[in-house]
Amino acid sequence: MGLMAYSSTRSCLVCVIVGVLVIVSYANNLYNDVEITWGDGRAKLLNNGELLTLSLDKASGSGFQSKNEYLFGKIDMQIKLVAGNSAGTVTAYYLSSQGATHDEIDFEFLGNLSGDPYILHTNVFSQGKGNREQQFYLWFDPTADFHTYSILWNPQRIIFSVDGTPIREFKNLESSLGVAFPKNQPMRIYSSLWNADDWATRGGLVKTDWSRAPFTASYRNFNANACVVSSGSNSCSTSTSTSTSSSSSSSSSSSPTSANKAWLTQELDTTSIERMRWVQRNYMIYNYCTDAKRFPQGLPPECTI
Ligand SMILES: *[C@@H]1O[C@H](CO)[C@@H](O)[C@H](O)[C@H]1NC(C)=O
């Protein structure tokens, strides 16, 4: 009897420990936040949702999208890019709404030959109009390890950051200059790994080396501190937030509480502006705002300030 009492106590302890582990791993689980959308088995959720990998071979690439649609947010993802000879491959990670007059906020990583630098390509579309490319080299090897790529999107500005360092800001200049700003159309996150050797390698200069396939990019630690829009209600509008916030409380997407909604009005402080200038001075390799040849009628209005 004594022994049985002991063993039932012990199995209860095991139950409690297992329960705690389940809750902890659930808190950062890509199963909650994304769904694989294409690639016929080439995209994989691994380690109980801790890791996602996309792969590309000659027959197909692969991709995923977020389950939620967001209208403003601070969204972080850690990505480790295709290593070795990745020339011709493009890893796209972006926010986009639907339709002809869609909004879009893009990160695209253009692969390169082993040892040659990746290009980080960025763009912003508002109401269907893009043509706002800025490209950068990175100050580290993005294939050696995971790095955090973030989009802060609030009603005043869009800030692209890499490991917490801002690299680009697109301000809301709608009222001052009449430049459309993404602010009404909810966007989803999309990511894909695909072959673009017809343009990504400086106009198709280098072709994808299929003997190196499959190419793989990895994702982890997704975090969306964002306003989630679902069936017309927005988790950030106070009165209707209850159901959305409770359904997302077990995932890494969460609706803002007064404690964590600072991102909704966040702006760059002096130190961040200096760091962004450092990146732009040393690592920016293309800026549409200085490409006068491309805009014979004059540079876009947001470039004049
Ligand atoms: C690849 O490396 C070459 C040589 O360093 C560089 O000019 C180019 O910008 C790099 N990126 C791509 C995508 O071609």
UniProtKB/TrEMBL annotation:
GO BP: cell wall biogenesis; cell wall organization; xyloglucan metabolic process
Gene Ontology terms, MF aspect: hydrolase activity, hydrolyzing O-glycosyl compounds; xyloglucan:xyloglucosyl transferase activity
What is the E.C. number?
2.4.1.207
Q: Which Pfam family is one of those matched by this entry?
A: Glyco_hydro_16
PTM comment: the record says: Contains at least one intrachain disulfide bond essential for its enzymatic activity.
According to its UniProt record, this protein's enzyme class is transferase
Localization per record: Secreted, Cell wall; Secreted, Extracellular space, Apoplast
Give the record's keywords alphabetically.
Apoplast, Cell wall, Cell wall biogenesis/degradation, Disulfide bond, Glycoprotein, Glycosidase, Hydrolase, Secreted, Transferase
Q: Where is the GH16 domain?
A: 24-219
Q: Residue spans with biased composition (Low complexity)?
A: 233-258
Presence of keyword Calcium: no
Report if keyword Hydrolase is assigned: yes
Q: What protein name applies here?
A: Xyloglucan endotransglucosylase/hydrolase
Which residues have a glycan attached per UniProt?
112
Q: Which family does it belong to?
A: Belongs to the glycosyl hydrolase 16 family.
**Active site (UniProt):** 104, 108
Question: GO CC terms for this protein?
Answer: apoplast
Q: Where is this region: Disordered?
A: 233-261
Q: Report the protein's function.
A: Catalyzes xyloglucan endohydrolysis (XEH) and/or endotransglycosylation (XET). Cleaves and religates xyloglucan polymers, an essential constituent of the primary cell wall, and thereby participates in cell wall construction of growing tissues.
